[in-house]
Amino acid sequence: MRMGRCMQKCTQSGGCIYTCVQTIRWVPVIIILCAIGWGYYAYVVELCIHTLNNDLQRVLYLLFFHIFLLLFCVSYYRTIFSPFRLPPSIFYPDKDCLNELMACERDEHLEQAILARYVAIHRVPVKTRDFARGIRYCPKCKCIKPDRAHHCSICGQCVLKFDHHCPWVNNCVNFYNYKFFLLFLGYGFIFCLFVFFTDLPYFIEFWTRDYQEHNLKASKFHLLFLVFVSGMFAISLSFLFFYHLYLTARNRTTVESFRAPMLEGGPDKRAFDHGIRANYREVFGYNRKLWFLPIFSRYVLRSLLCVPDRPSM
Q1: Which terminus of the chain has a smaller tally of CB atoms within 10 A, N or C?
Q2: Does residue 131 share a domain with residue 61?
Q3: Which residues contact residue 224 at a Cβ distance below 8 angstroms, ignoring those fewer than 6 apart?
């Protein structure tokens, strides 16, 4: 009995196991930051300062490098630390409804009847259903799931417009940070591509000419791995970036791309598709000048629960 209580305390917030798990989750982020730090040294010091001889070329390389790096880092930061908000209070049944649900915990039909009554009385804006075409309810969070919301077992709560939990940002990719996640992928891809192609000629030159000086041998080592790392990340990010651009054009999440949303009339893979232009506006906003900046969009906040009224497919 004491052992069980001890384990329960350790796994709760503030416990030793909980703290260790939370610390380990930051390891992928630390790896990314270390790669950025080393890449900064390799590009700025070894390539631009020790290798380039043309001052104009050096200035241009450093200018664009820092612009892309800044946009990438800000997008990455906002993807990680965007405010994580719970579903609106209307999705949480009152005490009377919760007591009724607890009383009929094993009777699914009665449970659905109680939820349907609550949704009808309080006009809860939900149109998606579970596989049995019932109201989607989360017993852990004790809330009716909003459209496109799913419970994240890692974060321990229901997440609005849940896409996936990304270990590289130690956060769920969701309604509030999806734009930043897209910009993080896009600027990461452009940044790595820029580093790769600007470093490649000097990497080739080091391997085709015979340098004996010690500092040039050190530069060869850094330029070798800089080409390899930037090329590898550019390829990886390109797949993710263009895949999520496709999902945005269809207004789908990663979850919905594998499992079509269930409406009252059945599954519909185009349940949230308003057209390419409107779909991108839901993520990036109306003002196209701000699409490429890591800032919030007002239009997104008004479109969270928007579902087109049309027959399911």
Answers
A1: N
A2: no
A3: 203, 206
